[in-house]
Amino acid sequence: MSASATKESITAPRLALPLWKVAVARSTLEIKQFFREKGQVVFTFGMPLLMLVLLASIFKQHIADTGVDAQQIYVTGMLGVGIMATSFQSMVLQVVGERANGTLKRLRSTPMPKSAYFAGKVAVVLVSSLGQAVILLGLGTAFFGLKLPTDPARWLTFAWVFVLGIVSCTLLGLAYSSYVRPQSAGAMVFLPVIVLQFISGVFIPFNQLPHVLRIIASFFPMKWICQGMRSVFLPDTFRPYEPGHSWGHGQIALALGAYAVVGLLVCLKTFRWKSRNDG
Hints:
Layout: H1 3-11, H2 19-36, H3 38-58, E1 62-63, E2 68-69, H4 70-100, H5 103-108, H6 114-143, H7 152-177, H8 185-199, H9 211-217, H10 221-233, H11 249-270
Antiparallel strand pairs: 1-2
Helix pairs in contact: 2-6, 3-4, 3-6, 4-6, 4-7, 4-8, 4-10, 6-7, 7-10, 7-11, 10-11
């Protein structure tokens, strides 16, 4: 067999299926694998729910002249934390583990397009995040006084904040995974996420935080996601507690869009399919 024929036989499987079919198949596999990992499912869904129940049960103070209790703020904050947990936090831990055990190296040697792998990761994050959001909103409306909006415009805001948050945090997680060693993955992921929760308006109205912490939080997506969620589920009477006394939808879209672009560029440039031990 000639060298050209051999090359053609090797590359032919790559053209056997359209890219979208390969991406759908990979996405389906990723979702099945996620839900088979019971421990991961319990942690992903359980941690924000547990934090919400504890905080909303202990702290019930009323925010003056807003008609809002701390409990409703916690619900919107946990929506942001949930997105960060399923997209950035879980993504980093998954990819670091797959790189360490050789899964990524084996996938790279298959005919599967690399983009199908990333599509699968985004798909599993979308499914798990949406399920988590439904549970959080159900809990918030049933027990903590959250009122679901009736204005379609607010649900449209929820949709684009949710999608931009997922895409930006997933891409940032994929990019960040290239700099994380398996031995220190837990500390390098959980520590910054925990710190961001305290400075992003999850537990305390954002304008009540020290100015320096507000500036630091503005450089990370969790602050913008939480702000977007508050604009959907809290009444306009709460706007005085937001930066500039405004929901800042334009700034939210610009910030999350910028994170998505930066995450994509860094990911394309630095993403590694092999561990450092493989050279």
